[in-house]
Amino acid sequence: MVGSTAQATSAAPTGRFAAFSFVDQITQIQGVTRVCGLYTIPANIEHFPASLVAEALGQLAAWVAMATLDFSQRPVAALAGDTKIFSLPKPGDTLELIVDIESCDAESIVYRGHALVNGCLVLELADTVGSMLDIHAFDDPAALAADFARLCAEGRAAGAFKGVPRASLTDLPESTPEHLQALLAVPAQAAFFEDHFPRRPVFPATLLLDALLQLAIRVAALASGDTTLHLTRITNVKVRAFTAPGANLLLSAQLAAPGVDDLEPFLVKLTAQADGKTIAGAKMYFALAGETA
Length: 293
Description:
It contains three helices and twelve strands; from the N terminus they run ββαββββαββαββββ. By secondary structure, it is of the alpha+beta class. It has two domains: 25-152, Roll (Thiol Ester Dehydrase, Chain A); 169-287, Roll (Thiol Ester Dehydrase, Chain A). The longest helix has 20 residues, at 205-224. It is globular and about 50 Å long.
C-alpha cells in the first residue's frame, strides 16, 4: 500500500510516459489479483472521451502484467466483452481506477475494472483480455521498470497529457442514413506515438473507438430523430491488427436491431478496415437523454 495522492514530481512534457499515459499513481497492489490507481484529467484539455477512461484501466492492468513478467512481455492487443458507460468525467476530475485481475501469465491477462469520480461510478469494464507480446519490440524494459517503481512510490506529476484532437473523418458518397461510411486518415506524426509505443508506434485502439463513435452517434441520432442520445455500452470490441502511423482506414457504422435482452433502443455495429481487411469491430448502444440501460 502506498499513499493515496500523487505528488508534484517532474514529468516529461512530451514523449514516453507523458503523451498517452493515464495512470498518475498506483495506490495499492494486492498480489496479481487487484490493483488501484489514480489519474487526474488535465483541466486545460477540451476532450477526454469514455474510451480513454477504458484506456486508463487497461494501462493500470498492463503495469501489473509487465511487473509480474519481469518486464519481458506486455499486453498490447485487447478484446473487451462489455464496457458500460454511466457518465462522462470532466477535465479536472480525478479518476479512481480499480482493476481486478482474473488471470495473468505469459500468454495473456484477463481482467475487469471500474473507474469512479468522487465515489460515483463512471465506467465499468468486463471480460477484457490482453495478449502478451515481447516487450522489447515496443519499449525499453529498464525504463518501464523505473516508471513502474515511480508510480508505486511518489507517483508522477499530473497534467502531462496535452490532449488529442478528435479524428477528422471524410464521409463517403455511398453512405445512407442507416449505414454511414467514412475515411480516417491516421496522422503520420503525433505526440501520442512517442508513448504508444516508443519502439513501434501504433495508433491507439481507444482513439479508433472514439472515431467510430463519431459515426455511431450520427447513425443513432438519424434513426431516433434526437440528438441528445448518449452512449451506454460498448460490446464485442475486437482489435485484430496494429494500425501504423499514416494508415488510411475505412470506417463503417450500420444501424441494427437490439437483441431481446437489450434495454437500449438503438444499436450500431461498427467496423474498421485497412486494405480491404477488417482490423477492428465493436457494437455501441445508445439511449435517449434521461434514460439508463
